[in-house]
User: Fold this.
Amino acid sequence: MILPVYLYGQPVIRKVAQNIDTAYPDLKALIANMYETMYASDGIGLAAPQIGLSIRVIVIDADPMKEYFPDVAGKKLTLINPHVEVLEDGEKVSREEGCLSLPGIHESVPRIEKIKLTYCDENFQEHCEEIEGYLARVVQHEYDHLEGRVFIDHISPIRKQLIKGKLNNIMKGNVRCDYRIKAVK
Assistant:
């Protein structure tokens, strides 16, 4: 089932999400719906707060970006209760990001290139791995949603001021999307 994507301005977007356990109702169906929603929206990642649920679940399929970032070919992850730890103190790399919850906005965002990711998969099997490059960026972007942050929180104040009108339009629901949305009423 394709679910509506909650837009910037919805309170759930700024709320810190809660861990879940194996007793969470209909988790497999939820994950399937999240993937279906992500694909229907032409996204490569989707966090549960973006569909109105303040829980720590993320789905990622970075394969569509393999033409530009060959290292993400076939990279599909379901992350439950993830934790991200930065492994490098090195320089951040800036790349353009967009977000299904912020349609029409794309900004250059600095992020660390290598992280340690601990999570449970859809069967609650624990994993701990180091990831880097573009996949690390995607994970950090989606992980931010679980922490009540969005990518524009990482841009300069002058850039935020320049997109203020677009943000106001998103919050008012004055935005066109090719996918189902839930705007602030």
About this structure: The first helix runs from residue 27 to 40.
